Amino acid sequence: MSLSCHLLHVLQPEEADNQYEMTSYEGAQARWCPGCGDHSVLTAVQKLLTAEQLIPEQTVFVSGIGCSSRFPHYLKTYGFHGIHGRALPVSTGVKLHRPELNVFTVMGDGDCTSIGAAHWIHALRYNLDLTVLLLDNGIYGLTKKQTSPTTPQGLKTNTQPKGSFLPALNPLAVSLGVTNASFVAQTAEWAPAHLYATLRAAYRHKGTSFVRILQRCPVFTPEVFQAAVQDPARIVLLVHDDGVVTPELNRIYSSQIHHDPGDIATARRLAEADDHIHLGVFFRDQSRPRYEETRKVTPRSPNERMSRLEEEFDRYAV
Ligand code: SF4
User: Fold this and answer.
1) Mind listing the pLDDT tens digit for each residue in 226-238?
2) Which ligand 1 atom is nearest residue 67's CA?
3) All domains of the chain, ordered by start, with CATH?
4) Is 149 in the pocket of ligand 1 (CB under 6 A)?
5) Residue pair 284/242 in contact by the 8 Å Cβ criterion
């Protein structure tokens, strides 16, 4: 399906003829490489759509360019496979024009944290009700192993064959530094229960929920998350009733911290820590203003609009 402006009547879930199943959301056959972490994310998203019974005609997935940006093709919802780095401006436009739609944004690390970085920062600040997924594999995969902002320092790539020059950009620390950001979380695609629980918390949050998903690219960066996959002791779960709780993972991930997502100072400290990988909701504040509320325009009749226009003109009468 392509994006359309023809949806005038908003269906409520109870009005829908059918209960949706996972297959209701399946689009084209995914063409990612075997073993690519994007497959896990797609499955978790389809599970979320099914659990929340989101009406496909009222759900939009917007992406930019990159391997993960093929996401909209693989879902039977509305979709917009846009241009590089511009997934968030498109999502913003859709949400402002059609606030009743469920809008998801899917980006890779090159897409979001490089060419789209300015849009990322301002979207977090605007805090529209969007669910934003950053699938971070630490490389430009589609263009065959070019250094991205999140490529680990020293990792050899086709654009920096002697090793990435700079320390990797930290998407969590950046997001937590943006004024008015309201939800920042991190999960990993190889921990499906945690991935699903995080996506659910993000979707249910009112405001822009930013989720960094650590994503394996077995073709170009197999070494990046290998140690964490093989050794769960390298991962620390942040648990809290206002964040993510996954008791089914307690035996695998025994290292856990009780972290209140309302504590921004601790969230920033945890985001900067490089001794372990922290998964969970770092920060959440649903009271932060949302752009669609602060800039809400009251509907007026043509006569009312004319009369207000005349009033404005009268102010400049001489
Ligand atoms: Fe996935 Fe990497 Fe293949 Fe792209 S190149 S589809 S990120 S495994």
Assistant:
1) 999 999 999 999 9
2) 4
3) 8-315 (3.40.50.970)
4) no
5) yes
